[in-house]
């Protein structure tokens, strides 16, 4: 009962934020501004939900609260693709100019990369931390390649790359938004039959196997879902590395439960609140002088260090 | 019936379990003893499919564990590892409820609630059921984990060093609970124990392992003998019968 | 077992160094050495020799940093790259540029040093609080920690329009090394001497706090000295050369595999192998797309990540679980 009331509270907060975001600060031109804001809001809700949801799954698999799926190296892969395209083809190339092509290339690269990584490591029967470390090392490697190219390209071209380095909801393509929603919906449908295992998986591998969870199969499936969700969200708006970490931990602090029914909902609500709130701050306080992902990474990063320093048994 | 046939496990080039075959008698307490690194825990983990075996077969009710559906297997056999640390903050009751997962997939029925109640009662933790695990003493926590396995209601219950880190009093409580599991509920209990006197006083059947192989097996009566123990532990062990129990003296 | 004597490895390093002097766009061959034209002499003194010196110093000192960190944390996968040290130093450089607009090199190195030290201390604090001390988990935390520090750097860099600059001056690269721009690296030499002096203490500290205290060691002091050496070396390398990923991770791992964990035995070899490894990577980077160059950061990134993943896999195979 208590959980339900807390969820209601968050829901009210979300509605208020959405309303403030949509309806305040418009003097004229309602017909023009409102639909654009609505698209932005939908993008915020969709990516916020995808990131929060995938982080919950990811932390359950790793039985760890200080990890985030972005350490699979997907963010760095995305940046490498963006930098590489500008470096080899130039900022005027179709892959940069046409957002559909760019989206397709980015999602494709990220998904192919994560599938290869999973396949290779799962065939060897390695544990999940090794998978993460290898992902993270490849991420570092992608980053060195990107930064090498970033130095060589022309400063004007670099500005184009720099735009891609930070998530932004300001130019979300409506068609791509729909495509993303459909892909995420499919990912959720694949997830749903596995939902019943989540609480048990969070006990750790030995307990889960003992209780009859087909562990390897389920975990592989879940990781694929995580990769798809993160890839789509990143290609749609850009990388927001620490959002998931921030909101899932806030959710844990807020409702202190292991039950995924609640955990997932609360994390998603926090995620939407964080994104919508930061977007408001970026637009109305910073008047676009900083970007939403920088703001969230900054706040999320500091919160993360605080979490690490706080004595905690959860990891 | 659990039949282990020619099972192997290697880490690198080093065999940890080396061509082991054994049948575990039903409705009894079987204890694995042996020096450190003998492969006892590894064998238990392979029997319960927590780790894969490199070669050989483990048959439960005449079916290879690989052919069992893992969901079904979890209603047949359960294991409690020595490092069963759970990161989550759970109450005793919540932990025990997880034992019903193989039956209810997370949606507890009335029957599940009954089983949970019985398990709580069996380990005498009714008063503690809403306490968090980290508020319990070591012995209470171990009993809570055992209650989870009891709620899982499997025919075979495997425990890897359940007495680890427990004091004498708690150790005796745990062993008595296990013994009641066999006598009252008709379960088959298999465990790894380091204290040979606990093995002597509570088990029906003893299996001795050394360097990945089974060196001796047999009834407790037959196993707790100076020559047998000497071949396992490479030391002289005196055996005295006190109150009808064979007690091993090896401290000097 | 391959157990190379110090004199052989030193000889190999000398040969490699000699070779490296003759790789480059401007013509310079061995016979030329005896009849140098003024131009060739200039190239040698202004560019080739400084480059060689900085490679040797940076390679040796970063590898030793890694070795000390691994010893102190008792984890084979901790290094300046995987403990946030590099990223913290980078944040320091950025801050010094923002606060003291025309910072002298000495101010920059001072601020970078303080940040690197704070960052590494913070990481050590985190390590102490982590209960789940899986060998693989700790570098994971360290790399995440580094990512966070660098996202803080990005926050400021973006605000002051320094993003591209930041990636350029901190991308490890020896091609910009010239006379007058690398001398700060010499700071590492006394620090390395200090490291040798403390080698025994570091080895003891590596056996754990209780163990070290039992043997009468001032544990906290030794750890602090170790971390200060690491932070100072990292700061000076970041400022002159830039980041060299994986170096501090790989070299100590390979060396201790053959020479054991006693620092007295492994320190010299680590320095020699570290210098040699960077030298080889640098030569590869210089010849592979001649007359252009690939930066050390990238060659090291490719070769280093490959070797690191191999080391990880090998570890899994030999120890299992």
TrEMBL record, chain A:
Q: Which SUPFAM superfamilies match?
A: ABC transporter involved in vitamin B12 uptake, BtuC (SSF81345)
Main localization (coarse): membrane
Which UniProt keyword terms apply here? Cell membrane, Membrane, Transmembrane, Transmembrane helix, Transport
What stretches pass through the bilayer? 6-26, 38-61, 67-89, 101-122, 128-153, 174-192, 222-250, 262-282, 288-309
Cited Pfam families: FecCD
Asked if the record carries the keyword Transmembrane helix, the reply is yes
Tell me the membrane topology, using the record's own terms: Multi-pass membrane protein
The UniProt entry, under Gene3D superfamilies, shows:
ABC transporter involved in vitamin B12 uptake, BtuC
Q: Where in the cell is it found?
A: Cell membrane
The record's PANTHER family line, in alphabetical order, gives: FERRIC ENTEROBACTIN TRANSPORT SYSTEM PERMEASE PROTEIN (PTHR30472), PETROBACTIN IMPORT SYSTEM PERMEASE PROTEIN YCLO (PTHR30472:SF19)
The family line of this record is:
Belongs to the binding-protein-dependent transport system permease family. FecCD subfamily.
Please report the name of this protein according to its UniProt entry: Iron chelate uptake ABC transporter family permease subunit
TrEMBL record, chain B:
Cellular compartment(s)? Cell membrane
InterPro entries annotated for this entry? Answer: AAA+_ATPase, ABC_transporter-like_ATP-bd, P-loop_NTPase, Siderophore_ABC-ATPase
Pfam hit, one: ABC_tran
Q: Which PROSITE patterns match?
A: ABC_TRANSPORTER_2 (PS50893)
Chief place of localization = membrane
Task: Extract one GO molecular function annotation from the record.
Answer: ATP binding
Protein name per Swiss-Prot or TrEMBL: ABC transporter ATP-binding protein
Please list the residue ranges annotated as the ABC transporter domain.
2-236
User: Which UniProt keywords are listed?
Assistant: ATP-binding, Cell membrane, Ion transport, Iron, Iron transport, Membrane, Nucleotide-binding, Transport
């Amino acid at each position: 009962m208590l959980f339900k009331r807390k969820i209601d509270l968050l829901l009210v907060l979300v509605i208020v934020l959405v309303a403030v975001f949509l309806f305040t600060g418009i003097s004229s031109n309602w017909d023009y501004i409102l639909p654009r804001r609505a698209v932005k809001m939908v993008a915020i809700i969709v990516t916020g939900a995808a990131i929060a949801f995938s982080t919950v799954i990811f932390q359950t698999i790793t039985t760890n609260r200080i990890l985030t799926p972005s350490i699979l190296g997907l963010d760095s892969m995305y940046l490498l693709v963006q930098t590489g395209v500008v470096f080899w083809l130039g900022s005027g190339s179709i892959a940069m100019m046409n957002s559909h092509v760019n989206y397709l290339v980015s999602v494709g690269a990220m998904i192919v990369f994560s599938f290869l990584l999973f396949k290779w490591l799962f065939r060897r029967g390695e544990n999940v931390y090794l998978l993460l470390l290898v992902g993270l090392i490849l991420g570092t490697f992608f980053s060195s390649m990107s930064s090498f190219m970033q130095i060589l390209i022309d400063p004007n071209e670099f500005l184009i790359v720099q735009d891609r380095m930070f998530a932004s909801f300001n130019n979300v393509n409506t068609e791509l938004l729909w495509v993303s929603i459909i892909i995420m919906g499919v990912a959720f449908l694949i997830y749903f039959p596995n939902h019943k295992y989540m609480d048990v998986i969070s006990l750790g591998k030995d307990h889960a196997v003992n209780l009859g969870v087909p562990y390897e199969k389920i975990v592989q499936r879940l990781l694929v879902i995580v990769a798809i969700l993160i890839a789509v969200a990143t290609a749609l708006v850009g990388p927001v590395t620490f959002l998931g970490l921030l909101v899932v931990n806030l959710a844990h602090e807020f409702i202190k439960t292991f039950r995924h029914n609640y955990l997932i909902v609360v994390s998603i609500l926090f995620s939407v609140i964080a994104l919508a709130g930061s977007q408001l701050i970026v637009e109305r306080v910073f008047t676009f002088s900083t970007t939403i992902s920088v703001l969230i990474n900054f706040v999320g990063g500091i919160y993360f260090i605080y979490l690490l320093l706080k004595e905690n048994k959860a990891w | 019936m659990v039949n282990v046939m020619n099972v192997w496990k290697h880490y690198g080039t080093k065999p940890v379990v080396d061509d082991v075959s054994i049948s575990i008698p039903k409705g009894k307490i079987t204890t694995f003893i042996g020096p450190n690194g003998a492969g006892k825990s590894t064998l238990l983990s392979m029997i319960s499919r927590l780790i894969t075996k490199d070669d050989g077969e483990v048959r439960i009710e005449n079916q290879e564990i690989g052919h069992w559906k893992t969901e079904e297997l979890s209603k047949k056999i359960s294991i409690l590892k020595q490092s069963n640390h759970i990161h989550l903050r759970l109450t005793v009751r919540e932990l025990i409820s997880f034992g019903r997962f193989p039956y209810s997939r997370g949606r507890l029925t009335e029957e599940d609630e009954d089983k949970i109640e019985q398990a709580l009662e069996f380990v005498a933790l009714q008063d503690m059921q809403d306490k968090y695990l980290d508020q319990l003493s070591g012995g209470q926590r171990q009993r809570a984990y055992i209650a989870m396995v009891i709620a899982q209601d499997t025919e075979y219950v495997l425990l890897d060093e359940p007495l680890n880190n427990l004091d004498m009093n708690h150790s005796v409580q745990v062993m008595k609970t296990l013994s009641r599991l066999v006598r009252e509920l008709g379960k088959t209990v298999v465990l790894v124990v380091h204290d040979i006197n606990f093995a002597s006083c509570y088990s029906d059947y003893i299996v001795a392992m050394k360097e990945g192989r089974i060196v001796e097996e047999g009834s407790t009566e037959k196993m707790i003998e100076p020559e047998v123990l000497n071949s396992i532990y490479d030391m002289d062990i005196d055996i005295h019968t006190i109150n009808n129990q064979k007690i091993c003296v090896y401290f000097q | 077992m391959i157990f190379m004597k110090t004199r052989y490895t030193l000889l190999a390093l000398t040969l490699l160094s000699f070779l490296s002097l003759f790789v480059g766009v401007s013509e310079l061959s061995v016979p030329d050495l005896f009849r140098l034209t003024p131009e060739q002499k200039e190239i040698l003194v202004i560019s080739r020799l400084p480059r060689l010196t900085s490679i040797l110093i940076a390679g040796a000192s970063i590898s030793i940093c890694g070795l000390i960190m691994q010893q102190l944390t008792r984890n084979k996968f901790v290094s300046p790259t995987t403990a946030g040290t590099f990223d913290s130093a980078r944040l320091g450089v950025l801050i010094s540029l923002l606060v003291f607009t025309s910072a002298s090199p000495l101010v920059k190195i001072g601020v970078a040093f303080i940040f690197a030290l704070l960052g590494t201390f913070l990481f050590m604090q985190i390590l102490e609080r982590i209960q789940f001390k899986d060998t693989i988990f700790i570098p994971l935390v360290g790399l995440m920690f580094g990512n966070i520090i660098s996202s803080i750097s990005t926050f400021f860099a973006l605000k002051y329009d320094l993003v591209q600059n930041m990636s350029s001056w901190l991308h490890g690269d020896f091609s910009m090394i010239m006379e007058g721009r690398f001398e700060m690296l010499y700071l590492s030499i006394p620090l390395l001497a200090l490291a040798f002096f403390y080698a025994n203490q570091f080895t003891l500290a590596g056996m754990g706090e209780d163990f070290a205290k039992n043997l009468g060691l001032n544990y906290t002091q030794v750890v602090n000295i170790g971390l200060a050496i690491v932070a100072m070396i990292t700061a000076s390398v970041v400022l002159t050369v830039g980041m060299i990923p994986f170096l501090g991770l790989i070299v100590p791992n390979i060396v201790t595999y053959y020479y054991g964990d006693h620092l007295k035995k492994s320190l010299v070899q680590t320095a020699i192998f570290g210098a040699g490894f960077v030298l080889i990577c640098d030569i590869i980077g210089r010849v592979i797309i001649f007359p252009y160059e690939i930066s050390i950061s990238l060659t090291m990134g490719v070769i280093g990540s490959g070797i690191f993943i191999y080391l990880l896999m090998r570890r899994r195979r030999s120890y299992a679980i």
